[in-house]
Amino acid sequence: MATIKAGNISKGSYILFKGTPHLVTKTEFVSPGKGSAFVRTKLKNIITMNTIEFTFKSPEPIEDVDVQSREMQFLYQDGEEVVFMDPRTYEQLAVPMSLVEDKVGYLTPELACYVLIYQDKPIGVRVPKNVKLKVTVAEDATAGNRVNAPKKPVTLETGISIQAPLFVKPGDMLSIDTETGQYVSRVN
Asked: In the chain, what are the domains?
């Protein structure tokens, strides 16, 4: 395992903390006027899924965890698991729903995602930054309601609801930002 300085850890990286791999979900670099710099972090234990906050001194050595990233296609959701397939070997991998969390509403069949693997076990899933989803339900816009770029709720093919511009109608394909869950654009 490689070591890195605490000042170099970033959101989305995996580190070994107290002998257990953790996902760094938030970092804040602080350089006070007096004393040495430090990094405030929020860490998610990838085994227990518990989140803790911890402050590292900036020059402190941290063990970087070797996490493999495999491109796989989403196949289907089966109860408390989400099933992915390696498009080259056709090997299927069941990932616990807790690792997909709030991203499950963006998964459509054959969507290419990256499954993160540590010691032969899945520990996370990275979905694309933007996904294309079809609108299934969209109410008609109210005439005259055009001030300040108003939005209306629409339901997408996976069942999630988002706020979209008034011109969006059922059957439209929309590009959705998977980080924020917000409308990006209409897609042809």
From this structure: 3-64 (2.30.30.30), 68-126 (2.40.50.140), 130-187 (2.40.50.140)
